[in-house]
Design a protein that fits this description.
This protein is an alpha+beta fold and 136 residues long. It is 34% helix and 14% strand.
Length: 136
C-alpha cells in the first residue's frame, strides 16, 4: 500500500494500463474558469520537493497541440501527497479540479511545502518509484 497519496494521476497521462495509480479522466476535471485558490494551489504544486526526475517530455492531453512539459513524469511531494511535475502546468492551463482532500491539506499547510529530511525524501522516492511506475 502506498504511503504517499497520489493527486492528479489521470488515465490520459499514462498509456501503460498496468499503472493503476493513473485513473479517472482529466477531461472530467477540466473547468472553464479559475478554481478557488487556484493560484495558491499552482504555486504549492510547483514548490514540491523533487523525488526523482524522468527525462522525457510529456504532452498536454487536453490541448492536443504538441504543448507539454519537459520532464513532466517526474514526481514531486509535500511529504503526504505525490504528483507529477506537469500537474501545475495542467491546473494552470485547464483549471483542473483536484481532489478535495488534497486542496484541504494544502490550505491547512498555508500553501507552504514543509521541509523534509533528505533520508525521508530518499525513502519516499523509492516507495513512489515502486508504487507509481513499478520501478525496482
Amino acid at each position: 500500500m502506498m504511503i504517499l497519496k497520489p493527486v492528479g494521476f489521470f488515465s490520459e497521462l499514462e498509456e501503460q494500463a498496468e499503472f493503476e495509480t493513473f485513473s479517472g479522466s482529466i477531461f472530467e476535471a477540466v473547468r472553464d474558469r479559475l478554481q478557488p485558490h487556484e493560484t495558491k494551489i499552482i504555486n504549492y504544486l510547483k514548490r514540491g520537493i523533487g523525488l526523482f526526475d524522468i527525462m522525457e517530455g510529456t504532452d498536454d492531453p487536453v490541448a492536443d497541440d504538441g504543448s507539454g512539459v519537459s520532464g513532466g513524469s517526474s514526481l514531486l511531494t509535500d511529504g503526504v501527497w505525490v504528483w507529477r511535475l506537469d500537474l501545475p502546468y495542467l491546473v494552470e492551463k485547464h483549471h483542473l479540479a483536484l481532489d478535495g482532500e488534497f486542496i484541504s491539506h494544502a490550505r491547512s499547510m498555508n500553501y507552504a511545502i514543509p521541509e523534509i529530511p533528505d533520508e525521508v525524501a530518499c525513502d519516499l522516492a523509492i516507495e513512489a518509484a515502486r508504487e507509481i511506475y513499478h520501478m525496482s
